[in-house]
Amino acid sequence: MDRSRENIASLRAQEAAPMEGVRFGARTANNSDRRALRDIGNLAGAPQNPNAVRKRGLSDENATDDKKQCVFLADRPITRRFAATLANQSRTDDHLQFSIATSSSTYQNFILRDVEETKEEEVNIEIEEIEMEDLEEEEEEVPEIDSCDSSNPLAVVDYVQDIYNFYRRTEDLGCVCPNYMSNQFDINEKMRAILIDWLIEVHYKFELMEETLFLTVNVIDRFLALQTVVRKKLQLVGVTAMLLACKYEEVSVPVVDDLVLICDRAYTRGEVLEMERLMVNTLQFNMSVPTPYVFMRRFLKAAQSDKKVELLSFFLIELSLVEYQMLKFRPSHLAAAAIYTAQSTLSGFKHWSKACKMHTMYSEEQLLECSKAMVEFHQRAGQGSLTGVHRKYTAFKYGCAAKHEPALFLLDIRPANC
């Protein structure tokens, strides 16, 4: 009996003896309620388990931040041989390393997740780069067109933009109803076109300023919109309007007798002066209206145009002065469309810069209808009986601008309002 008790005590002592090199819990292998090996709390990110194998020298007190490592143990049981192998490796390494023991499925999931995160980061970086490029394009500064005139007191750089803002607000006051001819009983659109084409030749012969021509046409239209005129007095209205424009714009004004002579003495001096009084009273002495010319100068500067673009632009807009149908466009619209059409004609493709759009306040789409009409005028400028503008701009003095081929490719573009 005593011997059997000694054997039982010996067996119990052997079962209670701990395994060498590995610390396990108090539960035995034969205990039915022992946790599965795969769930011993040693997965990555789980709380540290006292039963997990730890490399020698790694402790919360002594280990530095650079040398602290994690031990990834998953799906593999910790045998005595495996624990001894890990312990031997930790002795020979100079630096702590990651020891990852995982099944093939867990490893593949880890790699796939890492690849997906990398791709996601690359996509986010590309999106950020595209957004930065768009932001840089939006923040691209428009060239300062007045900096070159900062030392010129006549350019009034400090408030030139205020001047043109005022022009834009008041340009409608100088416009007329585009169908005012319906109120005239003895004249029509064709007679108006003949008169203005003739006045362009008179203006060229007298070598008057460009501003004078645009104001002359404006005065004629505003007067005819308010006053009915018989056919035989229409030429008198034209020369008198030019006399008023000369007094407003020119330094040296043509004398009345010169205007009577240019009309082949169809009217007397007294008739010219009488018509002058009638016109200024009808217009209430309002001669200060923004014409297409004032916008042309500003917009040409914004377009950084050369002499060719300038001459071709004026050729196109003078063709438009003759046409009654162009009264539906505002002066600023005509000026912008003339420059856009001239640039497109010379370059062979549509051209409208960001600076032009900003200073004219017209987009390319808004100019297409007016530009298309100008191309048609250019195409038939040398044909028919009204060729005064074409003859003027075929001269060397005006750079033979009328000889440029019209931009027919613009005719295929539908107007924006269609």
From TrEMBL:
<dbReference type="Pfam" id="PF02984">
    <property type="entry name" value="Cyclin_C"/>
</dbReference>
<feature type="coiled-coil region">
    <location>
        <begin position="113"/>
        <end position="140"/>
    </location>
</feature>
<feature type="domain" description="Cyclin C-terminal">
    <location>
        <begin position="290"/>
        <end position="407"/>
    </location>
</feature>
<keyword id="KW-0132">Cell division</keyword>
<keyword id="KW-0175">Coiled coil</keyword>
<feature type="region of interest" description="Disordered">
    <location>
        <begin position="42"/>
        <end position="61"/>
    </location>
</feature>
<dbReference type="GO" id="GO:0051301">
    <property type="term" value="P:cell division"/>
</dbReference>
<dbReference type="InterPro" id="IPR048258">
    <property type="entry name" value="Cyclins_cyclin-box"/>
</dbReference>
<keyword id="KW-0131">Cell cycle</keyword>
<dbReference type="GO" id="GO:0010332">
    <property type="term" value="P:response to gamma radiation"/>
</dbReference>
<dbReference type="InterPro" id="IPR004367">
    <property type="entry name" value="Cyclin_C-dom"/>
</dbReference>
<dbReference type="GO" id="GO:0016538">
    <property type="term" value="F:cyclin-dependent protein serine/threonine kinase regulator activity"/>
</dbReference>
<dbReference type="InterPro" id="IPR039361">
    <property type="entry name" value="Cyclin"/>
</dbReference>
<dbReference type="InterPro" id="IPR006671">
    <property type="entry name" value="Cyclin_N"/>
</dbReference>
<dbReference type="Pfam" id="PF00134">
    <property type="entry name" value="Cyclin_N"/>
</dbReference>
<keyword id="KW-0195">Cyclin</keyword>
<dbReference type="InterPro" id="IPR036915">
    <property type="entry name" value="Cyclin-like_sf"/>
</dbReference>
<dbReference type="InterPro" id="IPR046965">
    <property type="entry name" value="Cyclin_A/B-like"/>
</dbReference>
<protein>
    <submittedName>
        <fullName>G2/mitotic-specific cyclin-2-like isoform X1</fullName>
    </submittedName>
</protein>
<dbReference type="InterPro" id="IPR013763">
    <property type="entry name" value="Cyclin-like_dom"/>
</dbReference>
<feature type="domain" description="Cyclin-like">
    <location>
        <begin position="197"/>
        <end position="281"/>
    </location>
</feature>
<feature type="domain" description="Cyclin-like">
    <location>
        <begin position="294"/>
        <end position="376"/>
    </location>
</feature>
<dbReference type="GO" id="GO:0044772">
    <property type="term" value="P:mitotic cell cycle phase transition"/>
</dbReference>
<comment type="similarity">
    <text>Belongs to the cyclin family. Cyclin AB subfamily.</text>
</comment>
